[in-house]
Amino acid sequence: MAVIETKDLSYTYPGASRPSISGVSITVEKGEFVLITGPSGCGKTTLCRCFNGLIPHFYQGELQGEITVASMDVTKHQTHEMAKHVGLVFQNPENQLFALSIEKDVAFGLENLGLGREEMRKRVDWALNLTDIYNLRERSPHEVSGGQQQRVAIASVLAMQPEIIVLDEPTSFLDPISAEKIFDVIYELNKRLGVTVVLVEHRLDLTAKYAGHIVIMDEGKVCFDGDPRKILGAEETRLIGVGIPKATLLYQLLKKEGVNLSSITPLSSRELAESLEGVLQNHDRS
Amino acid sequence: MSVFDGLKFRRVSSPIHNLDPRIKFVYVIVIFIAAILFGEILPLIALFLLQIPFVLLARVQRQWLRSLRGATFLAMFIFIVNIATKFFTAGYILSATDIEFSAAMTLRFVVLVESFSVFFLTTSPDHLGLALEQTHVPYEFSFAFTTAVRFVPVLAEEAQTIMDAQKARGLELEKGNFLKRIRNYVPVLIPLIVSAIRRSLELAEAMESRAWGATKKRTNLYALKLHRGDLALLALTVCILVSSIYVRFYFVVPTLVQLF
Amino acid sequence: MIEVEDVHFFYSNQVEALKGVSLTIKNGEFLAIMGQNGAGKTTLIKHFNGLLKPSQGKVRIDGVDTRKTSIATLARNVGFVFQNPDHQLFCETVEEEISFALKNFGFEAEAIEKRTDWALNLLGLTQYRKTSPFLLSGGERKRVALASVLAWDPEALILDEPTIGQDYRQKEKLRQFIVQMQSQGKTVVIVTHDVEFVAECNPRVLLMKEGRIIADGEGKDILTDPEALANSSIVLPQVAQIFTYLSSLGFPKNIIDVYEAKAIILKALEEGRE
């Protein structure tokens, strides 16, 4: 069942001379972990904003084509309605936390929805535990690290229990270890709770291994859409300027030299290592 | 800056800090009214002394004294103006009553400043925001208040970074005459303002994405409940108000001069 | 060029951010400073142009004690590019932005014009000369900030987290740019988390933790040293990760370059065949 479906979607910001995205037709199935990537300016951030209604309701501008998210026509539902089904986590940790204590921030969306206090308390505690920040709940957002702030942002989106969570470069400002923690949290949510995850990222070396579906954009259009192993293994992808994982690059280089590695493109260092081990041991034996 | 120290919240756990901010605020207003009602020094001394147990219980003596020091300048000014007025209008003589009157006016000012100081020293911004929310102030206002408080340290850090960045490009903020120095701040102000605008845009996006405006009846995770301490303070407040009004209208308050 | 002698630094809230740091950076070196948030990296580099002065110890730039010199004088030789270009941009045109520092440093009108042209050209911004910097994209604004620092041609360039938010192509351009600066004899210091970027550049790497330097050496050795990694928030570069998994097969552990990895594996296969 498709949770996101776009047909020939194009959008031009007000006052812009060219559309930021054009002719985008993608489908995201329930429970998928989708990675959207591409060089800067390719339209990935714009596309994210379409998923929860910020485009067209907040940004105005010209939106053409069709877009259905969680069985709702985005153009016909206000952002606050979409918010119950699609959560959006932004790039800058500091600018999405408003309250003076972390648990009040996590409750923000629920307060907006008018939930009763008991239900709110339950959901807030649940979200805090899932993101492993329960012990930080009474601290002020400014006191905690960037990585912890992003976990607060994820918790506050989770608390609304949406079917889909969209994350727009959530680890840009974080160090690699905090980034990995965030990706682990997101992956858990996808695996355990079945939440559909749409992740926009540059750091493919850290994220490619989680995705079952990849969409690569360039200059507003979708260039590749499908199985990450096939797409990242192809020569053309590198040429667009996408930073494929080093393991995948090494795999391509070795394959070109005729090394008999498995036909399944590795997306992580472990996968390549296992493949290499097999080849090297075979050689040693012969 | 020491004056402002007297208004900044200090995170201490004391019975005063835990009192309901709404009741505390009503108490401060009543002190305000009582101070206005009386122009005589005796009741004002009483009102001033009334603050002290609160200050001690809340353990904010140092900050409170600092704000007192900050208020001294203005207090002196008020005293001198009053003395001077009395002196010149009474034909160049100064009686003991005049001095007492000027002292009373000064003390009234001090009482007003100090009661507010105690309020702000013992009420955290979260508590204040919560009080605003629960007293049916439109949510937009209390949200604007708490968000502003939340971002004050962030903006302060950013201002420092911007100054550093421009200093690293050779900007010398201290050089030049008064006019030049004001112009030197343009490269600091503009990035600060642009950044604040960008930040507001990002915050607005985040708010919308979390269902802002979904319903008119917004609920709240926390609820301020009145405890025994609050009721005690409320009772005290009512007593002060009633007795002040009573004394004002049915008694003549003696001056110190008359007593001695 | 930059000498740091047993520097201790205390912030106004009594936090000791640098606990006895000593370091020498030679002319023309390329150094990457890495470590956890709060390790003191940014505090350290702010000592290089006098934004911060040591509480104890000395910092000398080209032999000059930073405590005895103004920031403006030090900045003339040490260019500092901050992480967020929006913290610098304030002019109406890109041209004005680039000439701002030149005016501050007292360059003559003719020199200002020449250098502005040169900087615009170097970073591919000539077509934006009369554009407002606020209308440019994020990557373009970063280039404007960089151009405005290069315009006065400082001997040393310090870049604070230059790779944040940059895509692969932009990082490649940055890497080539740094190589170009080095070939001109400039000293380049970057503060970064980006292990893969550092792996591609293979500079001298300094690791910091809690206000101290805990490791100092060649990139490929530091980034693959398990003790160093355990002590800071950096991860092993992907290429090195592969070799860690294959450690039982006797490969060297300090490989961080893809092409070197390819060569080593091919050689191993050749040898295996014989």
Description:
The complex is a heterotrimer of chains A (286), B (260) and C (274). Chain A is built from twelve helices and eleven strands. Chain A has 286 residues and is α/β, with parallel strands linked by helices. Chain A folds into three domains: 1-85 and 162-236, P-loop containing nucleotide triphosphate hydrolases (Rossmann fold), CATH 3.40.50.300; 98-160, no CATH class; 245-286, no CATH class. In chain A, strands 7-8-9-4-10-11 form a six-stranded mixed sheet, sandwiched between helices. In chain A, strands 1, 2, 3, 5 and 6 form a five-stranded antiparallel sheet that branches. Chain A is globular and about 65 Å long. Chain B has two domains: 2-123 and 226-259, no CATH class; 140-209, no CATH class. Chain B is 74% helix and 0% strand. Chain B has eleven helices and no strands. Chain B has helices at residues 2-5, 21-37, 41-58, 61-89, 96-122, 125-134, 139-167, 178-184, 186-209, 228-250, 256-259. In chain B, helix 4 (61-89) packs antiparallel against helix 5 and helix 7 runs antiparallel to helix 9 (186-209). The model of chain B is unreliable at 1-6 (pLDDT under 50). With 274 residues, chain C is of the alpha/beta class. Chain C folds into two domains: 2-233, Rossmann fold (3-Layer(aba) Sandwich), CATH 3.40.50; 236-274, no CATH class. Chain C is 38% helix and 22% strand. Chain C contains eleven helices and ten strands. Chain C has a six-stranded mixed sheet. Chain C has a four-stranded antiparallel sheet with strand order 2-1-4-5, with no helix packed on it. At the A-B interface, helix 2, helix 3, helix 4, helix 5 and helix 6 of A face helix 6, helix 7 and helix 9 of B.
SSE topology string of chain C: EEEHEEHEHHHEHEHEEHHHH
By CATH, the superfamily of the largest domain in chain C comes out as P-loop containing nucleotide triphosphate hydrolases
CATH topology of the largest domain in chain A: Rossmann fold
Instruction: Please give the number of β-strands of chain A.
Output: 11
Helical/strand content category of chain C: alpha/beta
- Share in helix of chain C: 25-40%
Whole-number average pLDDT of chain C? 90
CATH superfamily of the largest domain in chain A: P-loop containing nucleotide triphosphate hydrolases
| Elements of chain A, N to C (H/E) | EEEEHHEEHEHHHEHEHEEHHHH
The level of helicity of chain A is: 40-55%
